[in-house]
Write a structure and sequence with these properties.
Alpha-Beta Plaits; 480 residues; N-utilizing Substance Protein B Homolog, Chain A; nine-stranded mixed sheet; globular
Length: 480
């Protein structure tokens, strides 16, 4: 895919020229990403990983590359809003030039440790390397004007509301760098305070949260190990097996205990989802959309690795990572099952015979992901309102397809990392209206320690940043 990182005009980065320049690499990646439309853009993390493959960058240059690329995507609309004060017809510029302006603008607005003249000069150089020398004057003039002007980046609720007294949706969209349609939805669903809180939280890089592997070590012991290793760590406020590492920006593999399988990276809200299954040793558990196994391995740990867990997914590479994670964590109770794509056939019954009827089912359904924008800012620009409706239909279909595998008195947990009504309560209500042999169980009945503001109508829901967690939704259903 690295060879595919070319401009819409076919301009390629010459071999060996600037291949260790983090600014150039970030602009090239952003240019390719901008050339695609919503829904067709690759995940920014995967795109960056592909571009860096084989590049011999120093650690500081690698960090700068990621900082510029992810930051430019996170603050895309705000940077563009600033630039459009100086550039007429910005939208008509080639994506290469837009990418240079955005990455340069990000450095000027957000990276105070980089002198503005350095960011400007480096951006001008990129116009020549990326095949747009005609734009050097435009880039130089507009970035210099940006550097010497007042740069507006509201960071508090009070400041935002003072600036957005008039057209709240448009103003909030620009100043918090979110799509207009998204802000309008959140204003309607959560009011001004809720919407502002979500938007602000989405622009804060979240701390790294890990789940302690209780099969190998107790949380207190692992916490002591981290502190002795010089890391700033604390227990999560709700999950009994979580630890939050404030300010950690290194590679996960560098954390003490990784190779020994003492922990797994997982947000606290996702940890609570597994706890909602109310698991027992020896049960048969089906994880329908297992992915790389964050929740599957947690399920195994909660059952003391004594049970029958079938982890399913339609992506073979994700299941391979799941198997690798299970091995590292020392888990043996998980079997994997590759499911056919929805349009390509049905699962063979023999693959399920050993586990049906199930005591527990987890459906961590594919969703819009609007609850994890703070971790994946490209989600903001890769979603459309139509996606939410289409995903809701798919989620309901998954629920109807797999609920029949649950035994009587068995429990099913449906979860998504989003807060949108259509994908959350809407799916559950539609399902219960046509399935009288299933009933909703209050999340607090399973986890009595959950605070009132995380349980509404029996559903578990966290908004981005609430108790330090991602935005998540979960419903517990029992078969009667």
């Amino acid at each position: 895919m690295a060879d595919a990182l070319v401009s819409s005009k076919g301009v390629r980065l010459k071999k060996g020229k600037g291949t260790s320049n983090p600014r150039l690499l970030a602009a090239k990646a952003l240019s390719f990403w901008l050339s695609k439309g919503p829904g067709a853009r690759p995940e920014i993390q995967r795109l960056g990983d592909t571009l860096l493959k084989g590049k011999r960058l120093q650690e500081k240059d690698r960090a700068l590359f990621w900082h510029i690329l992810v930051g430019s995507v996170r603050w895309l609309r705000l940077i563009r809003w600033h630039l459009e004060r100086y550039i007429k017809r910005y939208s008509r510029l080639p994506v290469e030039v837009q990418a240079i302006l955005l990455t340069g603008g990000f450095q000027i607005i957000f990276l105070s440790r980089i002198p503005f003249f350095s960011a400007v000069d480096e951006s001008v150089k990129l116009t020549r390397i990326m095949g747009a020398p005609w734009a050097s004057g435009l880039v130089n003039a507009s970035l210099r004007r940006l550097a010497t002007s007042k740069k507006i980046v509201p960071s508090t609720r009070k400041e935002l509301l003072e600036r957005c007294k008039g057209s709240k949706a448009n103003c909030l969209s620009n100043l918090t760098s979110h799509p207009h349609w998204m802000v309008k939805r959140w204003l309607k669903a959560w009011g001004v305070d809720g919407c502002v809180s979500i938007c602000l939280q989405n622009n804060i890089q979240p701390p790294l949260t890990v789940r302690v592997n209780t099969l190998k070590i107790e949380r207190d012991s692992f916490l002591d190990m981290l502190k002795k290793g010089g890391l700033s760590a604390e227990k999560t406020s709700l999950s009994p097996c979580g630890i939050r590492l404030e300010g950690f920006r290194g590679r996960v593999e560098e954390i003490p205990g990784f190779e020994q399988g003492l922990f797994q990276v997982q947000d606290e809200a996702a940890q609570l989802v597994s706890l909602l299954l109310d698991l027992r040793k020896g049960q048969r558990v089906l994880d329908v959309c297992a992915g790389v196994g964050g929740k599957s391995t947690h399920i195994a740990e909660l059952m003391e690795d004594r049970g029958n867990i079938l982890a399913c997914d339609t992506n073979r590479s994700r299941l391979q990572i799941l198997a690798e994670n299970s091995k590292r964590l020392g888990i043996t109770s998980i079997r994997t099952c590759l499911l056919p794509k929805p349009e390509k056939g049905r699962i063979q019954k023999r693959q399920l015979d050993r586990i049906i009827p199930c005591d527990r089912i987890l459906i961590d359904a594919p969703c819009s992901g609007l609850g994890v924008i703070r971790r994946h800012p490209d989600i903001k620009w890769n979603r459309t309102p139509d996606d939410i409706e289409a995903l809701a239909a798919r989620q309901l279909s998954l629920l109807e397809k797999w609920a029949s595998c649950l035994k009587r008195e068995g429990m099913l947990v449906y979860s998504v990392c989003t807060m949108e009504y259509e994908e959350t309560e809407g799916v559950i209500q539609s399902f219960l209206e046509t399935h009288s042999d299933f009933a909703l169980v209050s999340a607090r009945e399973v986890l009595p320690f959950l605070p009132d503001d995380l349980v509404k109508g029996g559903f578990f829901r966290s908004l981005p940043g609430q108790y330090g967690m991602d935005g998540f939704f979960a419903a517990v259903i029992r078969r009667l």
